[in-house]
Amino acid sequence: MTILDKILQQKEIEIQKRLHTEKKVETDKPVYSLYNQLLQTPHLQVIAEIKRASPSKGMIQSNINPVEQAKKYERAGAACISVLTDEHFFKGSLADLEAVANEVTIPVLRKDFILHEVQIEDARTAGASVILLIVAALPEKRLKELYDYATSLQLEVLVEVHDLEEYTIAKRIGAKIIGVNNRNLKTFEVDLAHTKTIASARNEIDQHVFISESGIQTIADAELVSNDGADAILVGETLMRAEDVESTLRSFQVQKEGVY
Ligand SMILES: O=C(O)c1ccccc1NCC(=O)[C@H](O)[C@H](O)COP(=O)(O)O
Question: Is 55 in the pocket of ligand 1 (CB under 6 A)?
């Protein structure tokens, strides 16, 4: 069984428990558009992640204050804050997301393994503007249902792919924000070349923005994926471990080739 299978199995258990609770979706919190932030920007944008732990690295930062970290990200010009809300494998929570969303005025992404409408409702109620849907985790019909449900609640969706086949599915369901995860979720191996492979398949009529996720450690990494076609990068571990979070984030906002 792969780690993704294990995570999805755990999610099904959590969803069944959640379905036994009475919670109403609240839609009065403001939402901010990540898509608009990423359109026609002169420099590479950064989606900065709050990530306490991960299956591949174990504990990264156990005693982090998510709101303080998020404020540093916002001050440094992050386009969006990604909050890992999975408790079991990543030591995050929806409470983290809610606390962050209450304190910033940029989009907040619920980074989790979303398989059911109630998780989308909980994201909206907590103040997320964006949710993640992973193509590898869902049959296409279900992916489209959840995508449409999220947009009906005014949420945007980051659709995550790993290969060209999944990229085709993401485009077929009408995804406006597509991310390629450079990390293989079965082996944890990171290869930034995945960004180039998928970005090369993008054509001029494609309306979506394109994010390179995982494994960005250096300015050279940011320049590489930017030159390969990424509009934004999603960075977790490097920012969580950085001594100077704000200057590290700013250093990743590299000028995009051919845009002045
Ligand atoms: O990070 C992991 O170990 C991981 C394992 C299995 C599924 C997902 C995983 N990570 C989620 C992410 O997508 C990353 O947190 C995100 O892209 C940031 O990655 P990084 O900058 O390498 O921390």
Answer: yes
